[in-house]
Write a structure and sequence with these properties.
The protein is an alpha+beta fold. The protein contains one helix and twelve strands, in the order ββββββββββββα. A hairpin with a 6-residue loop joins β11 and β12. It is globular and about 55 Å long.
């Protein structure tokens, strides 16, 4: 098993290996709806849908990575994507054959993301960072939705 961590530093989310070496980076919009993944091969766009449950890397017509609970693809190979969260943590699992990526992020602000990777993946930095983006995006969506609800109910009825 290989362990990666995503930490925010200098305006980017950096994918670090177990030794602390930078392997890739994500520069995302503040809402976590989209951004760019930077790997040694170059930069590529990443975005999510309005519900923050579907992640696309590349173009919509020919995605390199598509993470969706109803059918995922990694380099054209079918995969299974399961993502969810609650008040304490957000988790996801990406499976393809015998390979698996488990992603975990505590809900508290500033928490790092951890990805446990088993098996072989094409362009592993890209796939791992896409899965981490999926979890970070869902966490951000839940946080913004909570702020909107609290803001709406804390002002009381209009007079």
């Amino acid at each position: 098993m290989t362990v990666f961590t995503v930490r925010r530093s200098g305006g980017a989310h950096r994918l670090l290996d177990a030794a602390g070496n930078r392997r890739a980076a994500l520069r995302a919009h503040w809402s976590m709806r989209g951004g760019q993944i930077e790997t040694p091969e170059g930069r590529i766009g990443v975005w999510t849908d309005r519900g923050h449950r579907r992640v696309t890397v590349g173009t919509a017509e020919h995605p390199l990575v598509l993470l969706d609970g109803h059918g995922s693809l990694v380099a054209g190979v079918p995969a299974a994507w399961d993502v969810g969260g609650n008040r304490r943590r957000f988790d996801a699992v990406l499976r393809s054959g015998a390979s698996r990526i488990d992603v975990h992020q505590p809900a508290r602000p500033g928490a790092h993301v951890r990805a446990d990777v088993t098996g072989q993946w094409p362009r592993p930095e890209l796939v791992v960072l896409a899965a981490c983006f999926g979890v970070m995006s869902l966490r951000r969506f839940h946080h913004l939705r909570t702020l909107a609800v609290v803001g709406a109910i804390s002002h009381g009825p209009a007079h």
